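Severity: low
Component: inverse-folding endpoint
Summary: output formatting inconsistent between runs
Steps to reproduce: submit the following structure tokens with default settings.
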């Protein structure tokens, strides 16, 4: 049976998130990377907007070079916690169409939607729905390739960037690939490309026309692999994301504090963040850990394992508060607290919604409604009555 595979790749991800969050950056060259220090910086460009690419700026380029090419660009330091949060929201959208997701990096994933077509329409229709939801809920664009395997889907998603959709119908893989340069094949680096070019081979179609043995003679084992790809053959399955081991957030106070109410409300906010990310990953945690750092940097952790795996702040917060209370000492100021969930149970590992106890089901209904609001309006849209957002030095997620 044929498979239907999507490769979804966000467009200029970090730069697009910054343009979204700073409307004054729209239409301008935005370069996310290390500090250019007026051309003396030593780091590299992480991602840049399409406007910056027109100046020759690109990912992995030395930031000093980018500065030379585009001195009037908007240079932004990466905010990985924010990008990870948007990435979780992206995965959350994918999960509504299939649970067979292989996340390749923070902003791209393979989705096997073979089993979802009856429910949600053809692969191409699912791709459109996903693009539309990313646009509406995340205010970002993604490019999608659809094909019968991972390799062709990946090539397809890259072809019409940004905001592209390329559908390769089953049986048409070979003719789709034929006109493309050999450099698009996985496993063709500059060295192999030089060998091929010497033999007058520049297009994938030319590789497909070579006898199998001929290619092996020229390129050894890699030749067999390239021959397969050039024919659009790739049997590798979509492998579920390496299971996330823990999901956590921590918060460093602007000023060391002994204020119990502030500690409590901060802990609630962290529990909320952890719960949103757990649900985005369709995971529940059986173990809750609290991290606690005093003003002199002495650091403690305490953990508790619960009867039932949980994914709501209503369940995480009381457990975390119990742990925090066991750590607090009168007169000692606190610098940082953190909450994490581990010992994760994912829906694909067996337990289903029916196994939630009644009160958890109620919490979950409320929680999914909140997730939808967060996706739509951003993190700050939801403030619990008891949650007073404290001003902090920084927060960090993992
Ligand atoms: Mg991308």
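Observed output (run 2 of 3):
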């Amino acid at each position: 049976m044929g498979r239907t595979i999507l490769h979804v790749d966000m467009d200029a991800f970090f730069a697009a998130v910054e343009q979204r969050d700073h409307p004054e950056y729209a239409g301008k060259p935005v370069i996310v990377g290390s500090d250019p220090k007026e051309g003396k910086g030593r780091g590299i460009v992480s991602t840049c907007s399409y406007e910056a690419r027109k100046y020759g700026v690109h990912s992995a380029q030395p930031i000093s070079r980018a500065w030379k090419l585009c001195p009037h660009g908007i240079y932004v330091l990466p905010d990985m916690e924010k990008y990870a949060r948007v990435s979780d929201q992206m995965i959350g959208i994918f999960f509504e169409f299939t649970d067979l997701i292989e996340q390749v990096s923070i902003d791209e994933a393979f989705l096997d939607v073979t089993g979802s077509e009856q429910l949600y329409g053809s692969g191409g229709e699912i791709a459109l729905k996903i693009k539309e939801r990313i646009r509406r809920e995340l205010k970002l664009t993604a490019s999608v390739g659809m094909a019968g395997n991972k390799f062709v889907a990946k090539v397809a998603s890259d072809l019409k960037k940004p905001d592209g959709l390329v559908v390769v119908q089953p049986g048409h893989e070979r003719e789709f690939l034929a006109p493309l340069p050999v450099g698009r094949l996985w496993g063709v680096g500059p060295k192999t490309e030089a060998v091929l070019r010497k033999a007058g081979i520049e297009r994938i179609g030319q590789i497909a026309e070579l006898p199998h043995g001929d290619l092996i003679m020229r390129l050894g084992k890699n030749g067999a692999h390239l021959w397969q790809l050039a024919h659009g053959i790739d049997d590798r399955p979509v492998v579920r994301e390496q299971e996330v081991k823990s999901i956590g957030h921590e918060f460093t106070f602007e000023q060391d504090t002994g204020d119990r109410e502030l500690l409590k409300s901060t802990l609630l906010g962290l529990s909320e963040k952890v719960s949103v990310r757990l649900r985005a990953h369709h995971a529940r945690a059986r173990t809750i850990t609290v991290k606690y750092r005093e003003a002199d940097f002495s650091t403690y952790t305490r953990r508790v394992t619960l009867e039932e795996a949980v994914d709501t702040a209503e369940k995480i917060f009381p457990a975390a508060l119990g742990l925090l209370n066991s750590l607090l000492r009168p007169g000692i100021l606190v610098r940082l607290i953190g909450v994490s969930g581990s010992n994760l149970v994912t829906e694909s590992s067996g337990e289903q919604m029916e196994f939630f106890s009644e009160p958890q089901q109620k919490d979950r209904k409320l929680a999914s409604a909140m997730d939808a609001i967060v996706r739509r309006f951003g993190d700050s849209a939801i403030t619990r009555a008891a949650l007073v957002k404290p001003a902090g030095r920084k927060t960090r997620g993992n």
